[in-house]
Amino acid sequence: MLTPHKISLLILIEAYWEIIETDSTTPEKLEPLLFFLIEKISDEKRFPEPTLTELCKELSKISDNTDNITNNFNEILLAKLVVIVTPHELTLSIKEMKRFFTRDAELYLRKYSLLGIFVRRCILEMNKLMFDDISRLYNAFIEYRETLVKRTAKPSNLYTKDTYVPLEISEMTELAQRFHMHKQELIPKNDAESFSHYVITQLRKYGGILPLEIEEKLRKIHDRIPEISSIYYIEFVKYMQTGEYEGALTNFYKYSNFCPDDPENRSWYQYVLLNLVVLHAKFGHKEQAILAIREAIEMARENNDQECLRFALSWLYRLKSSDQTTGTRVSASEQQMLESLISKAKQANFMYLQALGELGKSQRQIQQGSSPTEVFESLLRSSVLNMNCPFKTMRFQGHLLNASVWQTYGSDTLANLFTHEVINNPDPSPEDRVTAICQLADNHISHGNYMNAFEVLAKSKVHFNGIRRAVSQWVFCFEKLMYQKSFNRDEIFNIGAIEHQIRACCQDDDLFRADFEFNRALYLAKTDQPDEGVDVLHKLINQSCRIGNQNQMLVANYLLKIAEIRIETEDLTSALPYVLSSLCLTGRAKSMIEKIMPVILAEHSLHLQSVAQYIYAQCLIACIDQDLQANRKQSINWQDVLYALDASRIGFKHLESISELLNVFQLMSYIYNIKGDINMRNRCAKEFRILMMLQEKNRRKQPDWNMTYYSRCIKLNQQEQENEAKQSIMSMEIENNYMEESSTFKINI
């Protein structure tokens, strides 16, 4: 595309040939100028192009072998620029360059020489320009020229044409400015394409959000040259990051329409379908993604494109294995498909697909309850592949999966190690980083370390500005923390304020959805809605029974909770079947829980460990009651029950779970009364009264409306985040007086 800088080069080429015509002894002396022109023409994709001042400075540095002609070239260039005073003269001066192709054989400009190709391209570009394009070129030329050539500039003696001073922009009317297009910038197409490809390269390398200045420049390029497809790709990436589905889909279709060089070549569209699969998967549209990937597989098979087929099979397995509607089990055919994918990727030396297949295999083994040895073998193979040929995305996803596996198997130290490896590295994507941060915060929450969880979330808030999916995941994690803390402290109004926000966010998290539904059942019972709470518990019982025998302890807990709800509502007749069902489980509960307890204490959260200890104590009490009723020797000592209750008390105290602490202290008072230990019974009763008063105070407490603001306002600076986190923590500590009083509480053994 023609620019003022290229017009200056044309003027220098014209002056070069005119001097050679007048003096045949000068070609050797003009070699520095010739090399200068060749260098500038070869560097035509430079962005931005040099200004007239920069060009003249470079001209002045040409070697003195030209016998002081260099200075004349500066004068000739400036003089020729001054005499071009109308768009017609500009057009005519370029078209007249045709004469250099009709000279004699010694002097004419050859068509296929570097200078000849440059001149012919400029002439062709000028012939293709429409009226408004010529107007834009002329006004850009005037602005380019007047940076150095003022109205007082004197033309050289070689050119004696009268000068014409154009009107200043400020002297024109608004209509004239629009007509002459003074306010529009000239953008070469090659420069625009180079700039857009550079932006894409930086986006792929670093990610993040584009600065406003670059977005404005891209918008100008898009308005002037809408056929550049890479602009649509940049918009597509931007909307993908911000989570705007319609904008991403629209720009993806535009990019697909402009991109193919050969529309007749249908094989190109299978890669379009692969990108469409990524788009649908990004926004959770599993059905559309599976339809697109199956079509891509068919086209890849028709065109015998093995590379595309392997990527398509990899994405198909990934979508099927993460499909919540079909359960966590993967069919035998899909398992065989995964094994085939890994073997073919290994044969073709596609290490990326091989590593991806091993990660998918590990995830499938975890979902299906395979042995830890098989899981870690797949993870180790994927890690070795990434070490030999490192893929940053795969490496960080492997670290996250390792963290999840170690947290599942109860090693919090190793889980935190892999999580920090992702957080402290500058290379992971925002999605991987926020996943690691949320995993670390969840680990703190599961052990009652609310302060550490607040600090982790507060410090990480500024890393996800403008990235909707990352922000949504961060907000969901923060709301889980606030919900769990409010529920444990019986802050009824806070629970109601958070519940409607968090309900829609936990649909993809099976474990948290079960915990949320259980807490919701207890919340409904606390708010005088016992029937609704019982219905929720029935659904949880049905789900646990379908999963298998590993959740019998949870089923017993659900049955006991239903019985407790019925007893509290004075519906003793309805409570009796659930108590009997729980007692049937309790008859073999001691042996069952003793088998399960090591796994719970090693692998599960602090809350579940405390619940297990409490249920274990209840089962021991039931066994003692059976011995007493049968007039048998007591097979279990009351001290064993107190050991389990004390372990449960410590866990619930750390979690600040007031309702569970009330149940524990009530049961401990009952046992101490049976044993005749009046002092310990009174101490437990005193703790019970303190907790009852705190519970009533929390139930009357109004919701903390700053909590919603804290979770939504992501653009606060770091100091403000830390202050808000400290305020939230202080509000949690103000009402912890009962903790100080009970911190010295120990069972008198």
From TrEMBL:
Purpose: Component of the anaphase promoting complex/cyclosome (APC/C), a cell cycle-regulated E3 ubiquitin ligase that controls progression through mitosis and the G1 phase of the cell cycle. The APC/C complex acts by mediating ubiquitination and subsequent degradation of target proteins: it mainly mediates the formation of 'Lys-11'-linked polyubiquitin chains and, to a lower extent, the formation of 'Lys-48'- and 'Lys-63'-linked polyubiquitin chains. The APC/C complex catalyzes assembly of branched 'Lys-11'-/'Lys-48'-linked branched ubiquitin chains on target proteins.
Pfam families: ANAPC5
Record-annotated Anaphase-promoting complex subunit domain positions: 232-321
Source superkingdom: Eukaryota
Name of protein: Anaphase-promoting complex subunit 5
Similarity field: Belongs to the APC5 family.
Keywords: Cell cycle, Cell division, Mitosis, Ubl conjugation pathway
The species this protein was found in: Rhizophagus clarus
Keyword Cell cycle: yes
Native organism taxonomy: Eukaryota, Fungi, Fungi incertae sedis, Mucoromycota, Glomeromycotina
GO cellular component: anaphase-promoting complex
Keyword Cell cycle attributed: yes
Biological process terms in GO annotation: anaphase-promoting complex-dependent catabolic process; cell division; positive regulation of mitotic metaphase/anaphase transition; protein K11-linked ubiquitination
